[in-house]
Write a structure and sequence with these properties.
The chain is of the alpha/beta class. About 35% of the residues lie in helices and about 15% in strands. The protein is built from eight helices and nine strands. It has helices at about 20-30, 50-55, 75-85, 100-110, 135-145, 165-175, 185-190, 215-230; strands spanning about 5-10, 35-45, 65, 90, 115-120, 125-130, 160-165, 200, 205. It has a seven-stranded mixed sheet, with helices on both faces. Strands 6-9 form a two-stranded parallel ribbon. Helix 2 links the parallel strand 2 (about 35-45) and strand 3. The longest helix is centred in the last third of the chain and has 18 residues, at about 215-230. The chain starts with 5 loop residues before the first strand and ends in a 29-residue tail after the last helix.
């Protein structure tokens, strides 16, 4: 069996209606990249037969299913990233809202040595379909402004299209403690504190009905997680104070060879 160069994690909870088409599209794009790839679907407690459907399907690239009993998108992504073994790893959403053509540039950037490549709907070259209720859009703007310093300056932490060098993905995922929707912030924080530069790339993005995120149901949870992430964030280490130059006026002279009698 050929070892994958890139593995992509797809977290899924009750995605039996959307995931088959998504896996066909994702697998077709991965196959077109011309390198060995694989997909890991992490079933997060589905009750609609999502896992069985994936296992029974025939896909353009190898797809395996993992079970994650711990609820939450963050928990599912963590499980999937820790199971990867490829030189490069990442994750995307089951709805494939982000245009998959962006994978061409992502793989090129990873192979060129960029350790973290993330899709950004706020990139000036992105094409984004206007979406959602104005309150949700305002919340997204405020959310990202509040945490940019934690997430390496990324202006769109919540786009579900992120890729990493494999060892970095697994190390950052091992430190991840956020199970809910704010997990992206903590994951990027763990990358940034390891000195990894984060490269945003433009994407085409469209709103796909059926999102499991609800402003009403999840805002308090996200706020609580952000407070915890900020409190747990590593404190910057202050630079050492500069050593003052000797001041000759105060009688400190340079050391010289002792005079011989």
């Amino acid at each position: 069996m050929t070892t994958a160069l890139l593995e992509i994690v797809v977290p899924a909870r009750d995605e039996a209606s959307r995931l088959p088409d998504g896996l066909v599209a994702l697998g077709g794009k991965l196959r077109a990249l011309g390198v060995p790839t694989a997909v890991i679907v992490v079933d997060n407690g589905s009750t609609d037969g999502t896992a069985d459907l994936v296992r029974a399907g025939t896909w353009p690239v190898p797809v395996r299913v993992l079970e994650c009993a711990r609820r939450g998108k963050g928990a599912a992504v963590r499980t999937g990233l820790l199971a990867t073994r490829a030189p490069y790893a990442g994750f995307c959403d089951a709805d494939m809202a982000t245009g998959l053509d962006a994978l061409d540039g992502v793989l090129d950037l990873l192979r060129a040595g960029n350790p973290v490549v993330v899709g950004s709907r706020r990139h000036p070259d992105s094409a984004v379909e206007d979406y959602s209720h104005p309150l949700r859009k305002l919340g997204a703007v405020l959310f990202n402004r509040a945490i940019r310093d934690l997430a390496g300056g990324v202006s769109d932490t919540q786009c579900g299209f992120k890729f990493f060098s494999g060892p970095l993905a697994r190390a950052a995922a091992a430190d991840l403690r956020t199970d809910g929707f704010a997990f992206d912030v903590e994951l990027l924080m763990h990358c940034a504190r390891r000195g990894a530069a984060i490269t945003p790339v433009p994407v085409e993005w469209r709103d796909v009905p059926g999102s499991t995120f609800s402003v009403r149901r999840h805002s308090v949870e996200c706020l609580r997680d952000l407070v915890r992430i900020r409190l747990a964030a590593p404190r910057p280490v202050p630079a050492p104070a500069p050593v003052p130059e000797p001041d000759r006026a105060l009688g400190f002279a340079e050391t010289s060879e002792p005079q011989r009698a």
